[in-house]
TrEMBL record:
<dbReference type="InterPro" id="IPR010497">
    <property type="entry name" value="Epoxide_hydro_N"/>
</dbReference>
<keyword id="KW-0058">Aromatic hydrocarbons catabolism</keyword>
<feature type="domain" description="Epoxide hydrolase N-terminal">
    <location>
        <begin position="3"/>
        <end position="98"/>
    </location>
</feature>
<comment type="similarity">
    <text>Belongs to the peptidase S33 family.</text>
</comment>
<dbReference type="GO" id="GO:0097176">
    <property type="term" value="P:epoxide metabolic process"/>
</dbReference>
<protein>
    <submittedName>
        <fullName>Epoxide hydrolase domain protein</fullName>
    </submittedName>
</protein>
<dbReference type="InterPro" id="IPR000639">
    <property type="entry name" value="Epox_hydrolase-like"/>
</dbReference>
<dbReference type="InterPro" id="IPR029058">
    <property type="entry name" value="AB_hydrolase_fold"/>
</dbReference>
<dbReference type="GO" id="GO:0004301">
    <property type="term" value="F:epoxide hydrolase activity"/>
</dbReference>
<dbReference type="InterPro" id="IPR016292">
    <property type="entry name" value="Epoxide_hydrolase"/>
</dbReference>
<dbReference type="Pfam" id="PF06441">
    <property type="entry name" value="EHN"/>
</dbReference>
<keyword id="KW-0378">Hydrolase</keyword>
Length: 349
């Protein structure tokens, strides 16, 4: 009955007739007109059955690890020398965000030197997200890294693997890179667990930023000034926001959608972006239908000190690639990433 119940709640949720403060930008949260349009699309144009069928085309499994049910996608290449690749999402994401790249990664690609490359892709749901069971209250990023290494090595039989992480998934990836250095043998991340420098620190260190990095730097300044409210709430009051929105799909859409709108490429919704209204509605539908919004936000409370002010070299000789996306909301310049990794490539997207 979850789907009919969700549709009834979406239909019967009342929104204000007019915007309270028309001049307020998205830094104050989701705009009423945007939310109202999404509500109408959710009711009239969105097809959950179609989205569900597309997601079910991906090979998915569960495994019991340390008493937890761990859900994961496992898409295999047909190539004999394929590379195991662990892909980790963050909040408010899921394995869904990797959907556009799964098939291409499993297909053969030849490098300029003629090397044949393809991947076995493993994309787990973080503990407490979607089909992975909620962890104990004292669960940390280190614990998630440990069970993901167990998944790759002991459950799936990969003695070594590469990894990719976004958002909090990148922090888990860095922990694997640093602490599980015999099995995690290459990393591609877009975040590291160290406090990003301020513009003044970047100037003091005589760092010259690319045009892409300058955009990211300004977005970092803006995010630190007005964008941290969700994180503070989820870190210190996860039950308040979690219970308030637990059975409220429009509320979850407002909370998640407002952040996605603020963090995204401003061109989202137009080609070549794959972030569409349907993508966002599926993201929220997955949280609501699995009843895991509350347990997902607890990840912040369980890891309140994620970012260290002191940069240290990792205990590994494995290479790292760092991907800087222009419209990210946190900037780590190349010189800072080098302090905390064996950086072989720093690429602006």
């Amino acid at each position: 009955m979850k789907l009919p119940h969700m549709k009834a709640l979406v239909e019967n949720t009342r929104l204000p007739d007019r915007t309270l403060y028309p001049g307020a930008g998205i830094e104050f949260g989701i705009k009423l007109d945007f939310l109202r349009d999404l509500q109408a699309k959710w009711l009239n144009d969105y097809n959950w059955t179609k989205q569900e069928a597309t997601l079910n085309e991906l090979p998915q499994f569960t495994a019991k690890i340390e008493g937890l049910t761990v859900h994961f996608l496992h898409a295999k290449s047909k190539e004999p020398d394929r590379i195991p690749l662990l892909m980790m999402h963050g909040w408010p994401g899921s394995f869904q965000e990797f959907q556009p790249v799964i098939k291409p990664l499993t297909q053969l690609w030849k490098s300029p030197s003629g090397k044949r490359i393809s991947f076995d892709v493993v994309a787990p749901s973080l503990p407490g997200f979607l089909f992975s069971s909620p962890p104990p209250q004292n669960w940390t990023t280190n614990d998630t890294a440990r069970i993901f290494d167990t998944l790759m090595v002991d459950v799936l039989g990969y003695s070594t693997y590469a990894l990719h992480g976004t958002d909090r998934g990148a922090i888990i990836g860095y922990t694997l890179y640093n602490s599980f250095n015999t099995s995690a043998r290459a990393a591609n991340v877009k975040s590291i667990p160290f406090v990003a420098p301020t513009p003044d620190e970047i100037v003091t260190n005589n760092i010259t930023l690319s045009d892409i990095a300058k955009v990211t730097e300004q977005r970092t300044v803006d995010f630190r000034a007005t964008g941290m409210g969700y994180s503070t709430e989820q870190t210190f009051k996860p039950n308040s926001i979690g219970l308030a929105l637990y059975d409220n799909p429009i509320g979850q859409l407002a909370w998640i959608g407002g952040n996605i709108q603020l963090w995204s490429d401003p061109r989202a919704g137009t080609s070549p972006s794959v972030l569409t209204d349907d993508t966002l509605l599926t993201m929220v539908s997955l949280y609501y239908l699995t009843q895991t919004f509350q347990s997902s936000v607890w990840m912040y409370a369980q890891n309140p000190n994620t970012f260290s002010p002191v940069y240290v070299k990792p205990a590994t000789d494995a290479p790292m690639v760092f991907s800087l996306f222009e419209f990210d909301i946190m900037l780590w310049p190349k010189e800072y990433v080098e302090r905390a990794s064996n950086l072989v490539l720093y690429k602006g997207m």
